[in-house]
Amino acid sequence: MDVVITTSAALDPTVLRLDFPILDQQVNGYPLAYLDSGATAQRPRSVLDAERTFLETVNSAVHRGAHTLAALSTEAFEDARETVARFIGAAVPEEVVWTSNATDGLNLVAYGVLNASLGRGGADARRFALQPGDEILVTEAEHHANLVPWQEVAASTGAVLRYVPVDDRGVWSLDDARPLITARTRILAFAHVSNVTGLVAPVADLVELAHAQGALVVLDACQSAPHRPLDLTALGVDFAAFSSHKMLGPSGIGVLWGREELLNALPPFRTGGSMISTVTMESSTFLPAPQRFEAGTQPVSQAIGLAEAVRYLERAGMPGVEAHEELLAERLVVGLEAIEGIRVFGPAAGIPRAGLASFDVAGVHAHDVGQYLDAQGIAVRVGHHCAQPLHRRLGVAATTRASTYLYTTDDEVDRLLAGVAEVRGYFGVDSAASSAGRD
């Protein structure tokens, strides 16, 4: 039984950590400091138990068969959909589509738009169709999952892909985006929270600008759904995607949310069993959403685990999670900026950001930084974080990223800061070498 706190007014990570077996271990002789939750979050016992119990007692194919286990499995599967729908402010459960991850969800939208542009989907789908001269607008800070699919759509339709530029810290603003949202803009796609800089986008303002021009808004919610209260209906976006494994849930499942009328008009791009209404040897018709996008055998036990992860987060209280991580972010940024030779990206200290920070250690490659920290039991992410254009703009091949979650403590952040302060000395990098480049 989890010992999770039941109030969002205050969050005590030392209590929550008792629910996460993996955190109670040593790595290289040190207590594990897991600061890579932005890549994959750890799972509490209740999530592990929920999936295991389902598999041991109810496991069966959903929406198929008339036997008792099939009925119970289907009921649990759809109850999970309702749980997630409530968590993200969906108007109806049918607005929640199961995908394999957020990348899959974003591709679902992109290739649905492409199919509509090719004339698929009939009259209802024409609202999505792109033609030469239309514009798709992203930002220079996007994760590849919300960039590469739109590159493919633009290349196939003749639409123009444009982007909102970032500054030397990797930050962009509403003022940067405003002049690029024009009558030619058909799709605006951006991350709610940057996985590299921690920037929190002004979603409501961007939605207002985009909708005034008749554009659709696609939100990458991977780094927001796990870390802050999220009401997608209230935000006004048209589609949003996020992954289970970043929010205490199993891997292999994600969520695409879309407004019901849009999902029912969007042509599917993955076809097969379970998503059809009628099939002849010549043609097929498709079910309404969400089933029209859920071809084949579904990730049933993973949906059960995700629903339990959502319930855990609800018990912890998302306002408390957000507040806790904002404090950790400030501690991170202030501490890192005080260390000689460290360049921190994203909003400066004192400006709210999500609970992560990416940084460059002058004269030391990010991979070496990560290995030095790992030797002290501190787990961080190194590389370009699936954001090569952003790193190219910043003039670095890779960065080190520390990302926090509800179970992260002040002590873990302080251990990271102490380790980073030692890196340049360990590798023999002096002040003169620090100006010789940041590769």
UniProtKB/TrEMBL annotation:
PROSITE patterns attached to this UniProt entry: AA_TRANSFER_CLASS_5
Top-level EC class as recorded in UniProt: transferase
InterPro entries the UniProt entry points to: Aminotrans_V_dom, Aminotrans_V_PyrdxlP_BS, Cys_dSase_SufS, PyrdxlP-dep_Trfase, PyrdxlP-dep_Trfase_major, PyrdxlP-dep_Trfase_small
Record domain Aminotransferase class V: where: 34-416
Keywords for this protein: Pyridoxal phosphate, Transferase
Catalytic activity, as annotated: (sulfur carrier)-H + L-cysteine = (sulfur carrier)-SH + L-alanine
Essential cofactor(s): pyridoxal 5'-phosphate
UniProt entry tagged with the keyword Transferase: yes
EC number: 2.8.1.7
Superkingdom of origin: Bacteria
Family statement: Belongs to the class-V pyridoxal-phosphate-dependent aminotransferase family. Csd subfamily.
Job description of the protein: Catalyzes the removal of elemental sulfur and selenium atoms from L-cysteine, L-cystine, L-selenocysteine, and L-selenocystine to produce L-alanine.
Protein name per Swiss-Prot or TrEMBL: Cysteine desulfurase
Native species: Frondihabitans cladoniiphilus
